[in-house]
Amino acid sequence: MILCCGEALIDMLPRETGTGEQAFAPYAGGAVFNTAIALGRLGAPSGYLGGLSQDLFGQILAEALAASQVDYSLCPRSSRPTTLAFVTLTNGQAQYAFYDENTAGRMLSEPELPDLGLGTEALFFGGISLVSEPQANSYATLCAGAGDRVVMIDPNIRPGFITDETAYRARLARMLSRADIVKLSDEDMDWLGTDPGTLLREGTAVVLVTRGAEGVDVVTREGETRVPARKVEVVDTVGAGDTFNAGFLAGLHRAGLLTRPALAAAWGTDLAKAADLGVRAAAVTVSRAGANPPWEAEL
């Protein structure tokens, strides 16, 4: 199982009722949640780990995971509320109001971390769950104890969410030092003050650098390969990066490369094939509204 560890939340999106009243509609979301959903739909053995509420919104999240064949049996369940993100549009630009204090996800503590068992072959971390404590520290502990499992990290840094930059930088540095796969954008690298060469020298096996409409660079110690993006009519880009992450991991799983020794010895062409699956899956996601990753049959 590829276990995606991080945030799941409810996006409250602005809508208008049949009588013209302004309202909000709940949609399951969250970067790590989206990656787990996309993995399940692509036919990979997908699992999700995060604090899940027993409330109405937690049930929506659980049902969405189950519908996409994602195992969430390792999730601690609690009576704490679900994280909500209310979205408003100003001149077409989205603004977010987060309600995250004392929520089931944010309050995930180290004692609640489950025994991963032999069935977990890889761990994925990322998103805003690496910012807010105590959950961020819990995921860092899980990452440090990954053992021989493959670890992928997509920090997807959002400076506006960071309240303790010193602690966040230190925690992220520890996690990146353990990562086998790291996905970064130019903005991520600028904020971190790093580059693929530095990460590779520090032990990362594969660095994925996203280039938007140009595609993605797959960088290893042996060299660099550009995997071009697909040309599609873009509806929105919500969930595109999350879907790419899932496609890459699913591609590694299909090729038998989801072990640390296999990943370290992988040919660039094999890694490029995995990245191409991520690119193709992401192209479907951006062609329709919201974070709605494709099923395997759609590819």
Automatic annotation (TrEMBL):
InterPro entries: Carboh/pur_kinase_PfkB_CS, PfkB_Carbo_kinase, PfkB_dom, Ribokinase-like
PROSITE patterns: PFKB_KINASES_2
Coiled-coil blocks: none
Sequence ranges assigned to domain Carbohydrate kinase PfkB in this UniProt record: 2-296
Keywords associated with the record: ATP-binding, Kinase, Nucleotide-binding, Transferase
GO molecular function: ATP binding; kinase activity
Family matches, as CDD domains: bac_FRK (cd01167)
Annotated Pfam families: PfkB
Similarity comment text for this entry: Belongs to the carbohydrate kinase PfkB family.
Protein name: Carbohydrate kinase
Organism: Mameliella alba
